[in-house]
Amino acid sequence: MRKRLLAPLFLSAAFLAACGGGDKKAEETKSEDHAAADNSMVKPQESGEELMNGSDCKTCHKPDTKLVGPSFKDIAAKYPLNDENVKMLADKIINGGSGNWGETPMAPHSNFTENDGKEIAKHILETYAAK
């Protein structure tokens, strides 16, 4: 009886912990004049892989195994690399969603910009597509 109660409790706690991570700290901004004068202070765009590694993506998604969410290979197999799919997946990454892969909702990642979401989506579709 006790084991039956502990398993769902543990899974619920793990799911809630996974949904809370990945926040980026707000970056301080400089005036446009100052930033234009000092281009060395401009932060280079992070790649999709770097953004994924700095977030909680791999808590729910694995390269070739379904976990909480679909595997990256399953995502790449379902959605060919094109602008429409990249935008749609970026929106799902940023705003969350459910229904495409079952009832478990994907947590929103509102800390990502639209460009960040697109970089992650492109990385998944390029890296994990069947070759």
Automatic annotation (TrEMBL):
Pfam families linked: Cytochrom_C
GO molecular function: electron transfer activity; heme binding; iron ion binding
Keyword tRNA-binding among record annotations: no
Entries under InterPro entries matching the protein: Cyt_c-like_dom, Cyt_c-like_dom_sf, Cyt_c_ID
Posttranslational mods: Binds 1 heme c group covalently per subunit.
Signal peptide feature range: 1-20
PROSITE patterns named among the record's database cross-references: CYTC, PROKAR_LIPOPROTEIN
Compositionally biased intervals (Basic and acidic residues): 22-36
Residues that coordinate or bind heme c: 57, 61, 106
Top-rank lineage group of the source organism: Bacteria
Domain Cytochrome c: 43-128
Keywords noted in UniProt: Electron transport, Heme, Iron, Metal-binding, Signal, Transport
Protein name: Cytochrome c
UniProt region (Disordered), positions on chain: 22-55
